Amino acid sequence: MLYELFVSSDTKAKDSRELNNIINKYGDNTIDELRKRSKDPSLSLRDRRHWRRLLRFATTSQDALPGNLNF
After folding, report:
1. Labelling 50: which of 18, 22, 61, 68 has CA 20 to 30 A away?
2. In whole angstroms, what separates CA 15 from the centre of its chain?
3. Which helix (H) or strand (E) holds 67?
4. What is the pLDDT of residues 4-54, one digit of tens each?
């Protein structure tokens, strides 16, 4: 919801493409993988923020996702 208010359409499109690639790779484990990456201390703060943004997009924009993911 809030994601759609504060993010440009270009960023939404880019996030959607990236999320679709991750879904194709991890399938039903996508949300778990995004959570893991968003909390990984070996990644830079910038990278963790990126994964948190994708996780937020994945969990709040279910209609944008192909298929059903287990949340």
Report:
1. 68
2. 7
3. none
4. 677 788 988 898 999 999 999 999 999 999 999 999 999 999 999 999 999
